[in-house]
Amino acid sequence: MKILVVDDKLETLDPLMVSLKNTGYVIESVNTYKKGEILALSNQYQLIFMAHRLCEFNRISHMRNRGFIQPIVVLVESLTDDTMISVLDAGVDEVLSIDLDQTLFISKVKSLLRRTSKRYQRSYSLGSIVFEPENGIIRKGKDIISLTNMEIKLMEYFYYNQNITLSKTKLMAVLWGNKDCVDNNLEVYISYLRKKIKQLDSSVVILTKRRLGYTLTIESKS
To answer: Within this chain, do residues 52 and 158 fall inside the same structural domain, yes or no?
Structure first.
């Protein structure tokens, strides 16, 4: 598998890149966002690492809108909730600290790639829209909206549990496993997914059930 690293301080990532290469990944690197975007859109990479300082909102959104659906991981020097939330809306899939234990770092990379590779050619009709998890999109007619990796997991779980109220605890377990996570992170993903569904003028809605959780359902339009 090929991984692209986009960072203007590549020398700080040498230990991580060596670990990735020793694990069997093919690593290519560039030091500017523009070079990274050109290579990313060639669709030859299964994963992209990008430095947080290069991860401006409009840049990542631009890549997503141009059809790049593979996972994007933002690398930060200091990982905080504020930092994580600040890049979610841009369409990234994971935020990792460059100081993270290398064994754990590699495990997270493997997990992310494994989830991506397990998507088969499927499409699900849901009300007036079609959900394609392997392509990372929802669509209605000719209108197509790209989803992040987390949004795909969330959408797929909602699909299999339509009209069922899902607790925050359950949804957080689906997205993050046993990793500690604050409610606000889940609410952010729910909000982004709602906005994308709404962009398609769809009958599909995610309802908030106070103190209970969330329900995906199809509303009849009178």
So the answer is: no
